[in-house]
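Q: What changes when iron/sulfur cluster is included in the input?
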Amino acid sequence: MSSLIKEREHQVFTKGRDDYKISAEKVSAAGSVSQRACVFCGSRVVLYPIADALHLVHGPIGCAAYTWDIRGALSSGPELHRKSFSTDLREEDVIFGGEKKLYRSLKRLIPKYNPNAVFVYSTCIVGIIGDDVEAVCSKVAAEEGISVIPVHSEGFKGTKKDGYRAACKALMRLIKTGSTIPRNKGSKPVINILGEFNLAGESWIIKKYYKKMGIEVGAILTGDGRVEQIRQAANAELNIVQCSGSLKYLAKDMKEEWGIPFKQVSFFGIEDTASALYTVAESFPDNPEIMEKTKSLVQSELSKAYPILENYRKDLTGKKAAVYVGGAFKAFSMLRSLKFLGVSVVLMGSQTGSAEEYEEMKEMADPGTVIVDDSNPSELSAFIQQLGVDLFVGGVKERPMAFKLGIAFCDHNHERKIALAGFEGMLNFAKEIHNSLTSRVWQTIDEARESDPWKI
Amino acid sequence: MLLRHTPAEVAERKALTINPAKTCQPIGAMYASFGIHGCLPHSHGSQGCCAYHRSTLTRHYKEPVMASTSSFTEGASVFGGQSNLIAALNTIFTVYNPDVVAVHTTCLSETIGDDVTQIKKKAFDDGKIPEGKRIVNVSTPSYVGSHVTGFAGMCAAIAKEFCVPTEEKTDQINLIPGWVEPADMRELKRLMKEMNVPMVMYPDTSGVLDTPMTGEHDMFPKGGTTIEQLETTGSSFHTFALGKFGSEDAAREIQRIAKTPFDVMDLPIGIRATDRFLMKVSEITGMPVPDSITDERGRAVDLIADMQQYFSGKKVALFGDPDQLFALTEFLLDIDMKPVHIVSGTPGKYFSQKMSEIIDDEVPTANYRNGSRADTFLLHQWIKNEPVDLLIGNSYGKYIARDEDIPFVRMGFPIVDRIGHQYFPTVGYSGAIRIAENILNALMDRQDRDAPEERFELVM
Ligand code: SF4
Ligand code: SF4
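A: The predicted holo structure follows.
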């Protein structure tokens, strides 16, 4: 079996051997077992954590059924987001259009659940049958007096990234329904955190840090999100954007509209977390106290974390890892964290990285590292074996594959149950990969491989 | 209280499904495809559906789930997906090289009106398909039916593609197991072997979605019904289809092609359904039920006798797929329990007709409903009106179980919060033992948890 698809020649790159620009953001070759999802999936991922909004999937049942509460985006209050609402389009709707059904659904749901806003997601066939979702939404919005925001997330109209973009547009619409409040002099600086989804409670960890620094977090988009907070997002002085792929569009739009500057950061790993905090402190030079507090916070966290990480490093040094994640930006943080723990990354890639991001990845990678864009299981497993990978960092579809190959795994995707952000997150990460790498089960497999126990 | 919004009063809903008790057709078609050896399921549509189906199957089976997609873009949705499918087949055969590609459609390719049979013919005519390779295709728009419909459709499509009619029939039977777990398929094979009945069973996902750990990742694992085996279905003298919803279409298709008579049986879940199945097989094949199986039955019944005092009169709510629900409801009645609420998202008039035969006399007040407004939201409302002692269903039942504080036994698809379910059969007598054990454990764990100190006893 030739594991490389011909069209993918320039989506696979070996540092030190190849010399071309990695082509990115290409449509997957038809017929490949791509690990990618659709536009709708991208939008749903971004907006889903808004806990007091009602999320109605306009389409056939499957699209809603598969996204019913599959992500650990935690809420400290309402949990309406975890319910699955679908217009469950049937054959007659496909023929006669689904607008009436959408209207009726909204009219029924809104009084019953009293949401603070509604998001209506268009799926593929809505794009084909041509429902005027926009019109239905504004009609219901007028009648019910709440924001009913259409999300143009027809699955086939691009990749998951376009779904992020559609979600950002929807968020922008929501923010514009808010009001700008004049700020009092001397009050605490306010920032928004974009692209943070509170998986396993990560938003809470991050928020705690900023609080200690004397910074107020206005809105988190969208982790543990609330409609009202998002509406006030235009009142912040700075946006920090994590996970480059998803909410950068919104940050750009907010900059254009209200002049709010943004900084790109990551909360994965010791170094990245520290620099995320310093970046914000530096943005408020008139307030030197913030920098003071940040320094002492980072120092105290580091002095707690270092000795523990040192211990893990002893067992982990020399291991080889593969990192395959959704967005490329996250892969950078992973690379730094793994290096910190003595693990070298020999294979890395993402589903939706951009060409520039891959250039950066090339820079960071060690010679011999293979870089892949929009990969598939047979390609990944071939490289894993060829490169002698011990640990795979990826998502739900990759886990069983890694295990079948007899290597360790760490879930660094939307379904993770262990907080990996911040200093605490780094400790969890180290612990998780340590546990997985040192599990006895891999030895058992190796033994079976070396000597067939039934053959005497 | 995740479901605190669920009101007790049940109002008719016209336009809305809340917390569905079903999913869409393609995932069923995909699951059935894995029951063919060397088969790559292919989703003709845009990428998302395929990714979702794979993720859901992966979460349920904890196994690598390989499937390809036509990766529709805006162009395809305007001009049709023919060129995507042909390009896809080309990629599939050069890169993955399966023996069979099983193509199912999605809502998108159906709505734009792609004719996969036509496209497939063109691909063959143009010499795009390598010698000896086979393509099965089925139409699976999700706005009709449910995941069960998709499964049934793919099973019928497999018959259509592979069944070769012969005049002379052999002494072999065809067994269509319905949508059951790999362990169930393994168990059915074992039972037939025990009875010395020659048979071909398809689909057979054992050895595909429960592969042993070898340190290698095989794109096409050892299991699955082979093409050669499938081709003999037309020379078998009889077909047994287990589960009307999941398997009847395939049996009819085989009959149409090869004039093979068939019997549609209930899924052999529980004692009586297993009895009926084995006795029918025995009657048709002339092979007696061996003592070893009679002993298995005896052990199952013995166990139930020991447990019966704890089951008696306990009310149960259950949801899932029709074929499972029929057999399970009957079994629950047989172990003295009282099924009071039954919900299936899969549409079909036959459901209430059959359910009424099973339950109306026994529990005249029982609620049952299927189809598009029959979701777990409705089930929850019914439970609020008439509380139950036990809930049985897939993982999505856990919300209700927690909210209402009811013991919960996981059965059905998908189970995404526990590991190992696919290793234990629920069919046959051994399956009955397992179900009974799970139910009793759930009830007794609850009793222990709730018991006041003076009632917390060692012997129960
Ligand atoms: S579009 Fe249809 S096939 Fe695809 S996930 Fe939605 S319901 Fe299923
Ligand atoms: S139908 Fe479209 S929107 Fe729904 S899952 Fe499939 S690709 Fe995504």
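Observations recorded in class: Chain A has three domains: 39-175, 190-299, 317-417.
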